[in-house]
Amino acid sequence: MTAMPKGAAQALLAAAESEAGTRGAPPPAGRNLLFLREEELRLAQDLLFFGYRDFTAGADAILADLGMGRAHHRVLHFVGRWPGITVGDLLGILAITKQSLGRVLTPLVEEGYVTQAPGRTDRRQRLLSLTEKGAALERRLFERQRETIMQAYREAGPQAVEGFRRVMRGLMGEEARAALARLEAPAEREGK
Fold first, then answer.
1. CA-to-CA distance for 48 and 44, rounded, in angstroms?
2. For the chain, what is the largest distance between any 2 Cα atoms, rounded to a whole number of angstroms?
3. How much is the average pLDDT of 17-23?
4. What residue ranges in the chain does DSSP mark as E strands?
5. How far is Cα 145 from Cα 138, in angstroms, rounded to an integer?
6. In what order do the strands lie in the sheet containing 126-130?
7. Residue 3, SS3?
């Protein structure tokens, strides 16, 4: 697939924003929530695509230099967020097969980014944690993306931050919301 030239992407976004009436002062929150036109919904889809592309670009460049990709990043992220996570829990969060996880996890273990330990009560379980090398890489990736998020939050303002969180939770299915709730409850993880 050929990448869209940057000027064309900007023109597309400008046209969509203009069509949706979002140029200049932002419309009041909740405007026409029950009667969103197709073009407004398509703009939301465009914003998600372009936002995700640019959000991941910096981390993708770091990963590419190491011969890694986004799947490696997701594993590093969630193992870093939840040290001691079981392989089963990670499979549930990522919604991938054991075979797919193996293709990503095996090199991360072999290259010294992730360690595996047997479960405390069930020795068949594998508990995953980042090594010092893995934590340093995860931190580097986070710091690169943190700048993008901080800039966007500053530009949007505090009310938009809460609105963004609500929209993103609304896009998630029940399983994703449950996984997020587990990640947001660090005290419960510590007793695991």
1. 6
2. 59
3. 47
4. 85-86, 114-118, 126-130
5. 11
6. 85-86, 126-130, 114-118
7. coil
Q: For the segment 107-124, what is each residue's pLDDT rounded down to a tens digit?
A: 999 999 999 998 888 888
Q: How confident is the model at residue 20 (pLDDT cuts 50, 70, 90)?
A: very low
What span, in angstroms and rounded, lies between the C-alpha atoms of 183 and 132?
A: 21
Contact criterion met (CB below 8 Å) for 14 and 51: no
C-alpha dihedral over 153, 154, 156, 157, to 10 degrees? 100
Q: Strand 114-118 relative to strand 126-130: parallel, antiparallel, unpaired?
A: antiparallel
Q: Is the pLDDT of residue 47 over 80?
A: yes
Query: Please, which contacts does 29-33 make with residues 24 or more away whose CB atoms are closer than 8 Å?
Result: 29/159, 29/163
Q: Provide the 3-class DSSP secondary structure of residue 134.
A: helix
Least confident segment among 7-21, 78-92, 132-146: 7-21
Please list the helix, strand and coil fractions of the chain in percent, rounded to the nearest 5, in that order.
Answer: 70, 5, 25
What integer is the mean pLDDT of 167-192? 78
pTM of the model: 0.76
Q: How far apart are CA 157 and CA 36, in angstroms?
A: 23
